[in-house]
Design brief:
7-stranded mixed β-sheet, 15 strands, binds ligand T4K
Length: 375
Protein backbone atom coordinates (compact mmCIF):
# COMPACT_ATOMS: atom_id res chain seq x y z
CA UNK A 1 0.00 0.00 0.00
CA UNK A 2 1.53 3.34 -0.94
CA UNK A 3 1.50 6.45 1.21
CA UNK A 4 -1.37 7.96 -0.75
CA UNK A 5 -3.58 5.08 0.18
CA UNK A 6 -2.66 4.37 3.80
CA UNK A 7 -5.64 4.20 6.15
CA UNK A 8 -6.29 7.33 8.19
CA UNK A 9 -8.29 6.69 11.36
CA UNK A 10 -10.33 9.20 13.32
CA UNK A 11 -7.52 9.29 15.83
CA UNK A 12 -4.12 7.88 16.62
CA UNK A 13 -3.02 7.93 20.26
CA UNK A 14 -0.10 10.08 21.30
CA UNK A 15 2.63 8.03 22.99
CA UNK A 16 5.72 9.27 24.85
CA UNK A 17 9.15 7.97 23.71
CA UNK A 18 9.45 4.28 24.58
CA UNK A 19 12.91 4.61 26.15
CA UNK A 20 11.54 7.10 28.67
CA UNK A 21 8.86 4.62 29.60
CA UNK A 22 11.45 1.84 30.06
CA UNK A 23 12.90 3.71 33.03
CA UNK A 24 9.51 3.91 34.70
CA UNK A 25 8.85 0.23 33.98
CA UNK A 26 12.19 -0.80 35.46
CA UNK A 27 11.34 1.08 38.62
CA UNK A 28 7.90 -0.53 38.86
CA UNK A 29 9.50 -3.96 38.34
CA UNK A 30 12.13 -3.28 41.01
CA UNK A 31 9.65 -2.10 43.61
CA UNK A 32 6.92 -4.65 42.76
CA UNK A 33 4.20 -2.24 43.74
CA UNK A 34 1.73 -2.60 40.88
CA UNK A 35 -1.54 -1.04 41.98
CA UNK A 36 -3.57 0.15 45.02
CA UNK A 37 -2.50 3.76 45.46
CA UNK A 38 1.13 3.21 44.46
CA UNK A 39 3.85 5.81 44.10
CA UNK A 40 3.10 6.66 40.46
CA UNK A 41 -0.61 6.86 41.24
CA UNK A 42 0.08 9.37 44.01
CA UNK A 43 2.45 11.35 41.81
CA UNK A 44 -0.01 11.49 38.92
CA UNK A 45 -2.92 12.61 41.11
CA UNK A 46 -0.81 15.49 42.40
CA UNK A 47 0.64 16.37 38.99
CA UNK A 48 -2.73 16.33 37.23
CA UNK A 49 -4.46 18.38 39.92
CA UNK A 50 -1.68 20.92 39.59
CA UNK A 51 -1.67 20.97 35.79
CA UNK A 52 -5.45 21.17 35.51
CA UNK A 53 -5.81 23.77 38.26
CA UNK A 54 -8.20 21.71 40.41
CA UNK A 55 -8.13 21.04 44.13
CA UNK A 56 -9.00 17.36 44.37
CA UNK A 57 -8.71 14.66 41.73
CA UNK A 58 -9.17 10.89 42.07
CA UNK A 59 -7.76 8.61 39.39
CA UNK A 60 -9.83 5.79 37.92
CA UNK A 61 -9.22 2.78 35.70
CA UNK A 62 -11.51 4.31 33.05
CA UNK A 63 -14.03 7.09 32.53
CA UNK A 64 -17.10 4.86 32.63
CA UNK A 65 -16.38 3.55 36.12
CA UNK A 66 -15.62 7.11 37.17
CA UNK A 67 -19.08 8.19 35.96
CA UNK A 68 -20.78 5.28 37.75
CA UNK A 69 -18.87 6.12 40.93
CA UNK A 70 -19.53 9.87 40.70
CA UNK A 71 -23.27 9.19 40.86
CA UNK A 72 -22.71 6.87 43.84
CA UNK A 73 -20.54 9.44 45.57
CA UNK A 74 -23.36 12.01 45.59
CA UNK A 75 -26.00 9.34 46.31
CA UNK A 76 -27.97 10.31 43.22
CA UNK A 77 -31.30 8.49 42.80
CA UNK A 78 -34.61 8.85 40.91
CA UNK A 79 -34.35 10.81 37.66
CA UNK A 80 -31.40 12.59 36.10
CA UNK A 81 -31.58 15.04 33.21
CA UNK A 82 -29.02 14.34 30.53
CA UNK A 83 -28.15 14.72 26.85
CA UNK A 84 -28.80 12.11 24.17
CA UNK A 85 -25.90 13.49 22.09
CA UNK A 86 -22.95 11.73 23.72
CA UNK A 87 -21.15 8.43 23.94
CA UNK A 88 -23.37 5.68 25.39
CA UNK A 89 -21.33 5.49 28.58
CA UNK A 90 -22.87 8.76 29.80
CA UNK A 91 -26.36 7.25 30.03
CA UNK A 92 -25.13 3.75 30.85
CA UNK A 93 -23.70 5.17 34.08
CA UNK A 94 -27.26 6.07 35.11
CA UNK A 95 -28.55 2.62 34.17
CA UNK A 96 -25.86 0.96 36.32
CA UNK A 97 -27.13 3.04 39.25
CA UNK A 98 -30.78 2.21 38.63
CA UNK A 99 -31.47 5.88 37.80
CA UNK A 100 -33.97 6.90 35.12
CA UNK A 101 -32.41 9.05 32.38
CA UNK A 102 -34.52 11.98 31.21
CA UNK A 103 -33.26 13.17 27.84
CA UNK A 104 -33.34 16.85 27.01
CA UNK A 105 -32.47 18.40 23.64
CA UNK A 106 -29.20 20.14 22.87
CA UNK A 107 -28.59 23.60 21.43
CA UNK A 108 -27.21 24.15 17.97
CA UNK A 109 -24.05 26.20 18.62
CA UNK A 110 -22.13 23.91 20.95
CA UNK A 111 -24.32 20.78 20.70
CA UNK A 112 -24.48 20.71 24.51
CA UNK A 113 -27.57 20.29 26.70
CA UNK A 114 -29.88 23.26 26.09
CA UNK A 115 -30.36 25.06 29.44
CA UNK A 116 -33.61 26.63 28.14
CA UNK A 117 -35.16 23.14 27.96
CA UNK A 118 -33.97 21.76 31.28
CA UNK A 119 -36.61 23.25 33.59
CA UNK A 120 -39.53 21.73 31.71
CA UNK A 121 -38.05 18.27 32.31
CA UNK A 122 -37.68 18.62 36.08
CA UNK A 123 -40.07 16.49 38.17
CA UNK A 124 -40.27 15.79 41.94
CA UNK A 125 -38.01 12.79 41.28
CA UNK A 126 -35.23 14.76 39.61
CA UNK A 127 -32.07 14.81 41.71
CA UNK A 128 -29.32 15.85 39.30
CA UNK A 129 -28.23 17.06 35.87
CA UNK A 130 -25.61 15.14 33.90
CA UNK A 131 -24.48 17.38 31.03
CA UNK A 132 -21.57 16.64 28.68
CA UNK A 133 -19.03 19.18 27.41
CA UNK A 134 -19.32 17.54 24.04
CA UNK A 135 -16.27 17.74 21.72
CA UNK A 136 -14.61 19.64 24.56
CA UNK A 137 -16.80 22.75 24.15
CA UNK A 138 -17.96 23.95 27.57
CA UNK A 139 -21.65 23.83 28.48
CA UNK A 140 -23.42 26.99 29.61
CA UNK A 141 -22.11 26.35 33.12
CA UNK A 142 -23.54 29.51 34.68
CA UNK A 143 -27.08 28.91 33.47
CA UNK A 144 -26.92 25.26 34.50
CA UNK A 145 -25.71 26.29 37.96
CA UNK A 146 -28.56 28.76 38.30
CA UNK A 147 -31.15 26.10 37.47
CA UNK A 148 -29.50 23.51 39.73
CA UNK A 149 -29.37 25.98 42.63
CA UNK A 150 -33.01 26.99 42.14
CA UNK A 151 -34.23 23.40 42.20
CA UNK A 152 -31.70 21.92 44.64
CA UNK A 153 -30.14 19.63 42.04
CA UNK A 154 -26.60 18.29 41.85
CA UNK A 155 -24.57 18.77 38.68
CA UNK A 156 -22.13 16.13 37.47
CA UNK A 157 -20.33 17.10 34.28
CA UNK A 158 -19.21 14.42 31.89
CA UNK A 159 -15.94 16.13 31.01
CA UNK A 160 -14.53 13.17 29.11
CA UNK A 161 -13.82 15.34 26.05
CA UNK A 162 -12.14 18.18 27.91
CA UNK A 163 -8.57 18.31 29.04
CA UNK A 164 -7.22 21.59 30.35
CA UNK A 165 -10.11 23.60 28.91
CA UNK A 166 -10.54 27.05 30.48
CA UNK A 167 -13.43 29.53 30.52
CA UNK A 168 -12.09 33.05 31.05
CA UNK A 169 -9.00 31.44 32.55
CA UNK A 170 -11.01 29.26 34.96
CA UNK A 171 -10.74 25.46 34.56
CA UNK A 172 -14.02 24.09 33.25
CA UNK A 173 -13.52 21.21 35.69
CA UNK A 174 -14.17 23.55 38.58
CA UNK A 175 -17.84 23.96 37.65
CA UNK A 176 -20.53 21.59 38.89
CA UNK A 177 -20.37 19.36 41.95
CA UNK A 178 -18.19 16.82 40.17
CA UNK A 179 -16.51 16.47 36.79
CA UNK A 180 -15.61 13.15 35.24
CA UNK A 181 -12.70 12.68 32.86
CA UNK A 182 -11.59 9.92 30.49
CA UNK A 183 -7.98 9.14 29.63
CA UNK A 184 -8.88 6.51 27.04
CA UNK A 185 -6.48 5.82 24.17
CA UNK A 186 -8.65 7.94 21.86
CA UNK A 187 -8.58 11.04 24.05
CA UNK A 188 -6.36 14.15 23.90
CA UNK A 189 -4.52 12.91 26.98
CA UNK A 190 -4.35 9.15 27.42
CA UNK A 191 -3.14 6.57 29.93
CA UNK A 192 -4.13 3.71 27.55
CA UNK A 193 -7.35 3.37 29.63
CA UNK A 194 -8.04 5.69 32.53
CA UNK A 195 -10.19 8.37 34.03
CA UNK A 196 -10.70 10.67 36.98
CA UNK A 197 -13.25 12.45 39.13
CA UNK A 198 -12.62 16.06 40.07
CA UNK A 199 -14.28 17.31 43.27
CA UNK A 200 -13.96 20.36 45.47
CA UNK A 201 -13.56 19.15 49.05
CA UNK A 202 -11.54 16.60 50.96
CA UNK A 203 -14.50 14.68 52.40
CA UNK A 204 -15.91 14.04 48.92
CA UNK A 205 -12.51 12.91 47.65
CA UNK A 206 -12.29 10.50 50.57
CA UNK A 207 -15.69 9.04 49.75
CA UNK A 208 -14.77 8.71 46.07
CA UNK A 209 -11.48 7.01 46.96
CA UNK A 210 -13.31 4.58 49.26
CA UNK A 211 -15.88 3.83 46.58
CA UNK A 212 -13.26 2.95 43.98
CA UNK A 213 -11.55 0.57 46.43
CA UNK A 214 -14.45 -1.76 47.38
CA UNK A 215 -15.59 0.62 50.13
CA UNK A 216 -12.57 -0.05 52.39
CA UNK A 217 -11.55 2.73 54.77
CA UNK A 218 -8.93 0.63 56.53
CA UNK A 219 -7.72 -2.96 56.49
CA UNK A 220 -10.90 -4.44 57.91
CA UNK A 221 -13.64 -1.81 57.63
CA UNK A 222 -15.93 -1.63 54.60
CA UNK A 223 -18.32 1.32 54.81
CA UNK A 224 -20.10 1.06 51.47
CA UNK A 225 -20.49 -1.45 48.62
CA UNK A 226 -17.73 0.05 46.51
CA UNK A 227 -16.30 -1.25 43.30
CA UNK A 228 -12.80 -1.90 41.99
CA UNK A 229 -12.04 1.06 39.75
CA UNK A 230 -8.43 1.73 40.69
CA UNK A 231 -5.84 2.96 38.22
CA UNK A 232 -2.72 0.77 38.20
CA UNK A 233 0.93 1.83 38.25
CA UNK A 234 1.50 1.12 34.56
CA UNK A 235 -1.31 3.52 33.59
CA UNK A 236 -0.16 6.13 36.10
CA UNK A 237 3.43 6.01 34.81
CA UNK A 238 2.17 6.49 31.24
CA UNK A 239 0.11 9.41 32.50
CA UNK A 240 3.10 11.11 34.11
CA UNK A 241 5.08 10.88 30.88
CA UNK A 242 2.16 12.03 28.74
CA UNK A 243 1.87 15.14 30.85
CA UNK A 244 5.34 16.21 29.68
CA UNK A 245 4.09 16.35 26.10
CA UNK A 246 0.50 17.53 26.49
CA UNK A 247 1.08 21.17 25.63
CA UNK A 248 2.73 20.20 22.39
CA UNK A 249 -0.08 17.76 21.65
CA UNK A 250 -2.75 20.44 22.07
CA UNK A 251 -0.73 22.92 19.97
CA UNK A 252 -0.54 20.38 17.12
CA UNK A 253 -4.26 19.61 17.38
CA UNK A 254 -5.06 23.32 17.25
CA UNK A 255 -2.88 23.77 14.14
CA UNK A 256 -4.69 20.96 12.34
CA UNK A 257 -8.09 22.29 13.43
CA UNK A 258 -7.28 25.75 12.06
CA UNK A 259 -6.07 24.19 8.80
CA UNK A 260 -9.30 22.20 8.45
CA UNK A 261 -11.39 25.30 9.12
CA UNK A 262 -9.47 27.32 6.55
CA UNK A 263 -9.68 24.64 3.87
CA UNK A 264 -13.31 23.65 4.48
CA UNK A 265 -14.80 27.11 4.84
CA UNK A 266 -15.41 27.47 1.09
CA UNK A 267 -17.19 24.14 0.70
CA UNK A 268 -20.93 24.67 0.65
CA UNK A 269 -22.93 22.54 3.08
CA UNK A 270 -19.96 21.52 5.24
CA UNK A 271 -20.39 23.24 8.60
CA UNK A 272 -18.15 23.16 11.64
CA UNK A 273 -17.88 24.64 15.13
CA UNK A 274 -15.71 27.72 15.70
CA UNK A 275 -13.76 28.50 18.84
CA UNK A 276 -15.92 29.96 21.61
CA UNK A 277 -15.25 33.42 23.02
CA UNK A 278 -13.08 33.44 26.16
CA UNK A 279 -12.44 29.68 25.98
CA UNK A 280 -9.05 27.94 25.80
CA UNK A 281 -9.88 24.77 23.88
CA UNK A 282 -8.19 21.36 23.81
CA UNK A 283 -9.28 20.47 20.23
CA UNK A 284 -10.40 16.96 21.05
CA UNK A 285 -12.56 16.34 17.96
CA UNK A 286 -13.19 17.97 14.60
CA UNK A 287 -16.87 17.35 13.81
CA UNK A 288 -18.33 18.54 10.50
CA UNK A 289 -22.07 18.72 9.91
CA UNK A 290 -23.25 17.95 6.39
CA UNK A 291 -26.19 19.95 5.10
CA UNK A 292 -27.15 17.55 2.32
CA UNK A 293 -29.21 20.10 0.36
CA UNK A 294 -26.29 22.49 0.04
CA UNK A 295 -23.56 19.87 -0.21
CA UNK A 296 -25.43 17.74 -2.71
CA UNK A 297 -24.74 14.45 -0.91
CA UNK A 298 -25.91 13.03 2.38
CA UNK A 299 -23.69 12.59 5.42
CA UNK A 300 -23.78 8.83 4.97
CA UNK A 301 -22.81 9.07 1.31
CA UNK A 302 -19.81 11.18 2.29
CA UNK A 303 -18.96 8.86 5.17
CA UNK A 304 -18.91 5.88 2.75
CA UNK A 305 -16.94 7.81 0.16
CA UNK A 306 -14.29 8.68 2.74
CA UNK A 307 -14.17 5.03 3.78
CA UNK A 308 -13.65 3.94 0.17
CA UNK A 309 -10.64 6.26 0.15
CA UNK A 310 -9.35 4.65 3.34
CA UNK A 311 -10.33 7.62 5.49
CA UNK A 312 -12.14 6.47 8.62
CA UNK A 313 -14.10 9.36 10.09
CA UNK A 314 -16.61 8.47 12.79
CA UNK A 315 -20.23 9.48 13.27
CA UNK A 316 -19.93 10.64 16.88
CA UNK A 317 -22.76 10.63 17.94
CA UNK A 318 -25.01 8.53 15.78
CA UNK A 319 -27.36 6.99 16.72
CA UNK A 320 -28.46 9.16 19.61
CA UNK A 321 -28.23 7.35 22.95
CA UNK A 322 -32.01 7.72 23.25
CA UNK A 323 -32.40 5.59 20.11
CA UNK A 324 -30.66 2.51 21.54
CA UNK A 325 -33.01 -0.36 22.53
CA UNK A 326 -32.32 0.05 26.26
CA UNK A 327 -33.58 3.65 26.24
CA UNK A 328 -35.92 4.18 23.29
CA UNK A 329 -39.03 3.22 25.30
CA UNK A 330 -38.62 6.21 27.64
CA UNK A 331 -41.07 9.10 27.22
CA UNK A 332 -38.22 11.56 26.79
CA UNK A 333 -36.69 9.41 24.03
CA UNK A 334 -39.55 9.60 21.57
CA UNK A 335 -38.77 10.79 18.01
CA UNK A 336 -39.43 14.49 17.58
CA UNK A 337 -38.66 15.24 21.24
CA UNK A 338 -35.09 16.29 20.47
CA UNK A 339 -35.03 17.93 17.09
CA UNK A 340 -31.61 19.59 17.36
CA UNK A 341 -29.94 16.41 18.56
CA UNK A 342 -31.67 14.34 15.88
CA UNK A 343 -30.44 16.71 13.18
CA UNK A 344 -26.88 16.80 14.55
CA UNK A 345 -26.81 13.03 14.77
CA UNK A 346 -27.97 12.78 11.12
CA UNK A 347 -25.37 15.29 9.88
CA UNK A 348 -22.17 14.71 11.86
CA UNK A 349 -18.87 13.14 10.88
CA UNK A 350 -15.79 13.58 13.05
CA UNK A 351 -12.80 13.94 10.76
CA UNK A 352 -9.39 12.49 11.66
CA UNK A 353 -7.63 14.67 14.22
CA UNK A 354 -4.40 13.69 15.97
CA UNK A 355 -1.00 15.34 16.43
CA UNK A 356 0.84 13.30 13.78
CA UNK A 357 -1.75 13.85 11.03
CA UNK A 358 0.35 15.02 8.07
CA UNK A 359 -0.31 17.84 5.62
CA UNK A 360 -0.62 15.38 2.73
CA UNK A 361 -3.25 13.46 4.71
CA UNK A 362 -5.23 16.64 5.39
CA UNK A 363 -5.03 17.28 1.61
CA UNK A 364 -6.42 13.80 0.94
CA UNK A 365 -9.31 14.28 3.36
CA UNK A 366 -10.23 17.81 2.23
CA UNK A 367 -9.89 16.97 -1.49
CA UNK A 368 -12.16 13.95 -1.10
CA UNK A 369 -14.80 16.10 0.62
CA UNK A 370 -14.42 18.90 -1.93
CA UNK A 371 -14.63 16.72 -5.05
CA UNK A 372 -17.55 14.64 -3.83
CA UNK A 373 -19.96 17.55 -3.18
CA UNK A 374 -21.66 20.17 -5.33
CA UNK A 375 -18.71 22.54 -5.16
N1 LIG B 1 -18.32 9.95 28.22
C1 LIG B 1 -17.97 10.38 27.00
C2 LIG B 1 -18.56 11.67 26.53
C3 LIG B 1 -17.09 9.66 26.19
O1 LIG B 1 -16.77 10.10 24.96
C4 LIG B 1 -16.55 8.45 26.69
C5 LIG B 1 -15.68 7.66 25.86
C6 LIG B 1 -16.90 8.04 27.99
C7 LIG B 1 -17.80 8.81 28.72
C8 LIG B 1 -16.35 6.80 28.61
O2 LIG B 1 -14.97 6.92 28.90
P1 LIG B 1 -14.05 5.55 28.91
O3 LIG B 1 -14.74 4.56 29.78
O4 LIG B 1 -13.93 5.08 27.48
O5 LIG B 1 -12.75 6.04 29.49
C9 LIG B 1 -14.22 5.41 21.52
C10 LIG B 1 -13.64 5.16 22.90
O6 LIG B 1 -13.54 3.78 23.22
C11 LIG B 1 -14.36 5.86 24.01
O7 LIG B 1 -13.44 5.97 25.07
C12 LIG B 1 -14.80 7.26 23.61
N2 LIG B 1 -15.60 7.89 24.62
C13 LIG B 1 -15.60 7.19 22.32
C14 LIG B 1 -16.08 8.55 21.86
O8 LIG B 1 -14.76 6.66 21.30
P2 LIG B 1 -15.00 3.73 19.72
O9 LIG B 1 -15.83 2.47 19.82
O10 LIG B 1 -15.31 4.69 18.66
O11 LIG B 1 -13.44 3.36 19.66
P3 LIG B 1 -12.62 2.57 18.58
O12 LIG B 1 -11.96 1.42 19.23
O13 LIG B 1 -13.46 2.29 17.39
O14 LIG B 1 -11.46 3.62 18.20
C15 LIG B 1 -11.65 4.66 17.28
C16 LIG B 1 -10.42 4.75 16.39
O15 LIG B 1 -9.30 5.15 17.15
C17 LIG B 1 -10.01 3.45 15.74
O16 LIG B 1 -10.66 3.32 14.52
C18 LIG B 1 -8.52 3.58 15.57
C19 LIG B 1 -8.10 4.50 16.68
N3 LIG B 1 -7.49 3.79 17.81
C20 LIG B 1 -8.26 3.29 18.81
C21 LIG B 1 -7.70 2.63 19.87
C22 LIG B 1 -8.55 2.07 20.98
C23 LIG B 1 -6.12 3.64 17.83
O17 LIG B 1 -5.42 4.06 16.90
N4 LIG B 1 -5.53 3.00 18.90
C24 LIG B 1 -6.27 2.51 19.92
O18 LIG B 1 -5.70 1.96 20.89
O19 LIG B 1 -15.10 4.40 21.15
Amino acid sequence: MNELNEPIFVTSPHLPPLDEFHEYLKDIWDRRWLTNNGLYHQKLEAALADFLGVKYLSLFSNGTLALVTALQALRITGEVITTPFSFVATTHSLWWNNIKPVFVDIESITYNLDPKKIEAAITPKTTAILPVHVYGNPCDVNKIKEIADNYGLKVIYDACHTFGVLIKGVPVLNFGDLSVMSFHATKVYNTFEGGAIVCHDEATKKRIDNLKNFGFIDETTVVTPGINAKMNEFQAAVGLLQLKYIENVVTQRKKITLEYRKRLSDIKGVNFIDDMNDVAHCYSYFPVFIDSKKYGRSRDELYEKLKMNNIFGRRYFYPLISQFPSYRGLDSAQPGEMRVAEKASREVICLPLFPTLRGCEIDRIVNTIQKFGNN
